[in-house]
Amino acid sequence: MTRLIVAAGGGGDAVAAAMLDAALYGDDDQAVILTYAWDRLLVDPVPGPRGPSDFTGLKPLTPSVWSVPANARPIAPAGSTLPRLAAELPHTFALIDPHHGVEGVTRQLEELVDHLEPTSIDLLDVGGDILARGDEPTLKSPLADALTLAACCQVNAPVRLLVAGPGLDGELPLDEIRGLLGPLVHIFTAKDTEPVSSVLEWHPSEATGMLAATARGVRGICEIRDAGLPIPLTGYGPTIHEVDLDDALNRNELARAILSTVTLDEAEALSREVCGYSEIDYERNKAAWLNNQPAVKLDPETVLPQLDEFENEARSRGVTHTTFRRLTEALGMPGSQREDLRTLLIRSRPERYAAPLWELAAVEDETQAP
Predict the structure, then answer these.
(1) What global pTM score does this model have?
(2) CA atoms 153, 265, 163, 243: torsion sign
(3) Each residue of 325-361: pLDDT tens digit?
(4) Contact status, residue 221 vs residue 360, Cβ threshold 8 Å
């Protein structure tokens, strides 16, 4: 018995898919997770998604679908979290190749469905930006979700759309999508995070990190990304809701616009037309800037006072938690130093690690006598 879970946006959605699989279908289930190799620049310095030609060691599943085993490697300078996910999790990770547009992704899905004959197909999005119209000012990365949504709507098989952690990706506020959510399917618990606990220690996804943190009971305001977006950590955080697939397509203008695309360039051009921008253009521009960003010496005597200064300012904004990605960029370090900074901070102040987030020091009560 095989299940297929499509990680709508790649990245952390693939980790959440593994959580979902264990929570809904049992620890013994080992679904095939179809996902992009589209990691942000702190993992992959090359803008845009990777295709099969960007890896060595892939294994063919169907004529146009390849799996990423633990011994696969991205070809430098590209990077990918998928081989490490395959090494630490029991699932099969199959690669979405979007370079042939929605028609290509649809073909890959149809081949997998014919090959696997899955008992269920879930399309999973963390945060809910798959429900965007395309003109929202907070929307930053609509293309990956639009590609998978458009493809899933065309495959000749029933697909269930699930949104986990509504509002957690910082793309669409919870209040904006709350009314679009359908039936509650599950509420993640701390136990549900156990199968991916080792992955959460290193994976850079902020949205899935907050999904796991809220499942573990963390509440407050988490600041994320280079822009310092404040994300409420509430009881909605660990929830999974079903959403009607056709309703999502009817709402998502970009997904409808790219339905017949045969190249990624074509889909990207339509993103510029519908949304006013392309997230790959953003990655291109940021990659050029990051190439000129030097590494910073990680001296605790320098870093910890800088951390204190950042935390004082963040607390004044009502922030209670942050991510290591946010800390890395706020302290002026390149993304390549994220892991080293994380290790230094946890070693220095272990009580502040609210896995996988960083908890800001509580404000001392100034009314108390010293």
Answers:
(1) 0.95
(2) negative
(3) 999 999 988 888 999 999 999 999 999 999 999 999 8
(4) no
